[in-house]
Specification:
- There is one protein chain.
- By secondary structure, this protein is mainly α.
- Helix content is about 60%, strand content about 0%.
- It comes from Bifidobacterium thermacidophilum.
Length: about 290
């Protein structure tokens, strides 16, 4: 059975009159519903509803619109900070990967199947074959002047140019699947990612996942992270005063903060992010302790 669309007024009637939301002193609720999308806001509603997992969507007594709009607005600002950090990480990974690969004889072999591990996806597809297809796709689509120059002259594209055409997820797969262990070890060491290549690859992959969440403007508050990063001993020691669950957003954020502080050689980034995250106690609790609705 398909759901029928509701007007803004019908949405307001549903939330206020039928479900008991208090909007006293808030005259712009109709604008909020139009601009923010009811479906997106509903992820914030759930924390204040009686039993949404079993269909009871009435708000608990005393719930005011500000209760979920505060975390909604903090989320907006935190996503911008996260994107700032993941962008810096992505640029650094591109540069370091290209440099260490080129220095270890891989400047032009990054499109060879033999440069990547033989790993199959559950459907039987070889991961390296999919990766090579994606690499060629991004190189063919790129409008970067230097890459257009190589294409026009039918010359091979060196890795230091090629990485600039790759999105973060493709770069992450190139790093995790590459067989040049010397280059990968030097890359990991340069970013303090530890000696365990698998753990380092998992950390990078989790940062891609975190970036994608923020790029799509998804909710962070009360969110359970599907790809949770491993925590290195040094990171755990630096952030040992915090209590958080394994699949919490905060776990991913301390990994990101540690990486960016290491890259920038100062704590400016972590200080800004912590200040934003801790600006509201209820919000910060939701970053550290996700709710698992069904």
């Amino acid at each position: 059975m398909t759901k029928q669309p509701k007007t803004i007024q019908e949405m307001m009637t549903l939330l206020v009159e039928e479900r008991g939301l208090d909007i006293t002193g808030f005259s712009d609720f109709s604008t909020v519903l139009l601009d923010c999308n009811y479906y997106r806001l509903s992820g914030y509603f759930r924390a204040f509803q009686i039993d949404p997992s079993h269909g009871n969507n009435r708000f608990r007594n005393g719930t005011h619109i500000r209760d979920f709009m505060i975390p909604y607005l903090i989320d907006e600002q935190l996503r911008l900070l996260i994107l700032r950090g993941t962008s810096s990480l992505e640029q650094t990974l591109r540069a370091h990967f290209a440099y260490y690969l080129a220095q270890n004889g891989g400047a032009y072999s990054y499109t060879d199947l033999s440069s990547y591990k033989t790993i199959k996806y559950p459907d039987g597809t070889e991961a390296r074959e999919v990766l090579i297809e994606n690499i060629h796709k991004w190189l063919e689509r790129s409008s970067e002047v230097c890459i257009r120059h190589y294409r026009k002259n039918n010359e091979p594209i060196p890795i230091w140019s090629a990485v600039e055409a790759m999105p973060f997820d493709t770069l992450s797969k190139m790093i995790s699947l590459h067989t040049n262990t010397t280059a990968i070890d030097e890359l990991n060491q340069s970013l303090s990612l530890g000696k365990n290549r698998q753990r380092a690859a998992q950390i990078i992959h989790s940062m891609v996942y975190l970036r994608n969440i923020c790029s799509h403007h998804c909710r962070l508050w009360n969110r359970e992270i599907v790809l949770s990063p491993p925590i290195l001993d040094a990171t755990a020691e630096r952030y040992g005063s915090y209590a958080y669950e394994d699949r919490s957003v905060w776990k991913s954020l301390i990994v990101l903060m540690d990486l960016i502080d290491g890259i920038k050689k100062n704590s400016t980034y972590s200080s800004m992010l912590i200040k934003q995250a801790e600006s509201n106690d209820n919000y910060f609790w939701g970053l550290c302790h996700p709710k698992r609705w069904h």
